[in-house]
Inverse folding.
């Protein structure tokens, strides 16, 4: 340091610009390294040090000794780093909470939409002619064409025809909702 420690503290107390230049040149790099050990990010460490320098400039506080001033600097850096880390932890918890709730809400919306599509499907299926409806309901329960044919005493070709007619009717009746059925892998 180019000036005595006592003169430096006197200039800091009187807010002389030259003292802050000396403060920056003499302490900045050390304080950034000290802060980096705590916050693990250079940009954040630099911000912390700059905030402390600004606080010193704006504060009416006066320092009695160079040694006390140095202790204050390191304590102030330590406290700002802890504040930053606490704030970051709160932000992370809030973000995790938001993501969890967002996923829950998206899940609820998806389930609500799915229920509405199924409701429309079953209302539309009720409008099918009896035999066509029976074939299609068995299809929805996962039965194969051969099983449906055997259960209803129909030929496999007749089952296929009823299913085609049902799909054509549902496409017309349900419009865009029919596409969602395909997405939900119902058909």
């Amino acid at each position: 340091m180019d000036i005595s420690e006592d003169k430096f503290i006197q200039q800091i107390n009187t807010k002389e610009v030259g003292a802050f230049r000396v403060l920056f040149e003499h302490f900045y790099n050390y304080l950034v390294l000290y802060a980096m050990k705590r916050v693990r990010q250079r940009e954040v460490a630099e911000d912390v040090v700059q905030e402390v320098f600004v606080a010193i400039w704006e504060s009416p506080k006066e320092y009695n000794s160079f040694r006390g001033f140095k202790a204050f600097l390191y304590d102030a850096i330590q406290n700002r780093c802890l504040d930053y880390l606490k704030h970051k932890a709160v932000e992370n918890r809030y973000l995790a909470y938001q993501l969890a709730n967002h996923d829950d809400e998206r899940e609820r919306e998806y389930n609500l939409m799915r229920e509405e599509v199924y409701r429309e499907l079953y209302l539309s299926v009720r409008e099918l002619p009896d035999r066509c409806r029976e074939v299609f309901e068995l299809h929805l329960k996962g039965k194969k064409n051969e099983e449906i044919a055997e259960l209803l005493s129909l030929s496999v070709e007749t089952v296929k025809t009823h299913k085609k007619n049902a799909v054509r009717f549902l496409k017309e009746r349900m419009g865009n909702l029919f596409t969602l059925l395909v997405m939900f892998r119902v058909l």
User: Anything to note?
Assistant: Residues 1 and 22 are 7 Å apart (CA to CA). The first helix runs from residue 5 to 13. Residues 5-94 form a domain with the Rna Polymerase Sigma Factor; Chain: A fold (CATH 1.10.1740.10).
